[in-house]
Amino acid sequence: xxxxxxxxxxxxxxxxxxxxxxxxxxxxxxxxxxxxxxxxxxxxxxxxxxxxxxxxxxxxxxxxxxxxxxxxxxxxxxxxxxxxxxxxxxxxxxxxxxxxxxxxxxxxxxxxxxxxxxxxxxxxxxxxxxxxxxxxxxxxxxxxxxxxxxxxxxxxxxxxxxxxxxxxxxxxxxxxxxxxxxxxxxxxxxxxxxxxxxxxxxxxxxxxxxxxxxxxxxxxxxxxxxxxxxxxxxxxxxxxxxxxxxxxxxxxxxxxxxxxxxxxxxxxxxxxxxxxxxxxxxxxxxxxxxxxxxxxxxxxxxxxxxxxxxxxxxxxxxxxxxxxxxxxxxxxxxxxxxxxxxxxxxxxxxxxxxxxxxxxxxxxxxxxxxxxxxxxxxxxx
Length: 381
Description:
The protein is of the alpha+beta class. Helices cover 18% and strands 37% of the residues. The strands form four sheets. A nine-stranded antiparallel beta sheet has the order 4-3-2-1-9-8-7-6-5, with no helix packed on it. Strands 10-14-12-11 form a four-stranded antiparallel beta sheet, covered by helices on one side. Helix 3 (179-187) crosses helix 5 (220-234).
């Protein structure tokens, strides 16, 4: 009896916060200092709730940048430490709760340098209003025959870095794209699969800006069809296909299964934009689209999707590139040094396995090749 009394007295002397887990569900908000923002800051709102089996889930809103909320892949509470990751934008937050679970002091990381972000636990009365997201753009019908209503083609600015294919603001456009880039994008092949073309196809870069017929935006496959028609009409491209055994990379599922977050976006257009060499946040992407970006921008050979994974996913891939990677984006010369203080990341193959639960392996396979029979420099606008 005496031993039990001692235990009860000992428990009674502990603070309440040690006896009960902190309740962090609800709305949290704070201001993130961003010099590039119109007012030098962005208002951030994080809504935390309990999901299936009591697990925490979170959604992040940047209310000065209109758009839907972005789900976190996971949120953890260990003692007073809170951490969540938003793979679709390559962001991570780590903070520490005060004793009353009213303030969360920590850092937001979306690049090499963390930014301080303090979040306050607020009520419905004091919470900032989250603007309604803009209406979704009008998309082409699935059975549409996509084409450009009008398109301009001009030489790229040689001082402008990078390369881009994008669908935005009622228009579709490319930046710093060679005809090789247009072919590999439009037909889903690697540059090593393109043969028979003159040298300028690989070296001359163009910016393309166009409006789709009917004003509706294409999905990714329809965008590719539009570029195919542009190549035939404005570059006079004629080609045929053949088969050849090539060394490729096969993308498969790892032994413990994939580590991907199901996308909650209602759209059919992925966001696969690099935030630097070796930093790829992906939003609303299929495995086929991911393989296409890796073969088009990163790797020196074709990538074949053999995962069998269907649907659209959010994830982030962080790795340290080697000298064989990103040749098309960075140009000749050595890889740039990582920023001071940047976290050391694994090589690509290890990162894909550990971060995504997938595998990337070199193999040989009969592969389609794209033989150029005719191509000309673009006709005038």
